[in-house]
Design brief:
The protein has 232 residues and is of the alpha+beta class. Helices cover 21% and strands 18% of the residues.
Length: 232
């Protein structure tokens, strides 16, 4: 979603069950409720294993956690969309004591993570560029909750921390990573970060309007002219 502030006026890309059944508590993950944000995620099973982030097995919550939110954009893969700093992560599902009108309208009654509105950051869509890999060692895997506690995950963690701190995360040298094959989402992300999709779209529209066709500005090659209908 663009805003995660209720479904009205927004749209969901690759929404899965939400699009099928019109449910999904994540739609209000960045809604301001009296200075707080209430984040929802569905872990495997009924609880989040907060002992993996410093809590004891008897604790029901842990404070001071930086929670990073990810989602799957239309272009594919999994990207960082924002974060809560100094948040509280609960082991079990919690009920929002006083849902605001927007949460009530969207059927949002529960949460698993609570943060301060002034410490929550939702990146604009064009800034959601940092890919969190799934199909490589140290990546997320298939779970919705990832603790990034493996040694192999440290490089990814460093990139996320750099993003949160306002630095430019360093891209891995894909040519030096034998585990990354052609077609892997991480390689796609590396290339996409060097080309702004909005600029490409605008450029194509401008050329089509001016010339009625798209051809290479360097060599003049025209896919439609060469291949016919399949090239259009």
């Amino acid at each position: 979603m663009k805003n995660y502030n209720g479904i009205s006026g927004d749209s969901i890309e690759r929404g899965g069950k939400y699009n099928q059944h019109s449910i999904g508590h994540e739609v209000c993950n960045f809604t301001n409720n009296n200075g707080n944000v209430y984040g929802y995620v569905q872990p495997v099973g009924e609880t989040i294993k907060i002992e993996k982030i410093g809590a004891s097995k008897k604790d029901e919550k842990i404070d001071g956690v930086t929670v990073v939110w990810t989602a799957g954009p239309e272009s594919g893969g999994t990207v960082v969309i924002g974060w809560y700093k100094d948040a509280t992560v609960y082991r079990s599902l919690q009920s929002i004591e006083r849902p605001n009108s927007l949460q009530t309208k969207n059927g949002v009654k529960s949460y698993r993570i609570k943060g301060s509105w002034d410490k929550a950051v939702l990146l604009p869509v064009e800034k959601r560029e940092l890919i969190i890999p799934r199909a490589v060692k140290g990546g997320i895997g298939q779970s919705n909750v990832w603790f990034a506690d493996k040694e192999e995950s440290q490089e990814i963690v460093n990139q996320v921390v750099a993003l949160i701190n306002g630095e430019t995360p360093s891209l891995p040298d894909v040519d030096q990573r034998k585990s990354i094959e052609e077609g892997n989402p991480r390689l796609v992300a590396h290339l996409r970060r060097e080309r702004n999709a909005a600029i490409v779209k605008t450029k194509k529209a401008s050329v089509l309007k001016a010339t009625g066709k798209l051809s290479c500005e360097v060599c003049g090659f025209d896919f439609k002219e060469f291949y016919g209908d399949p090239g259009e």
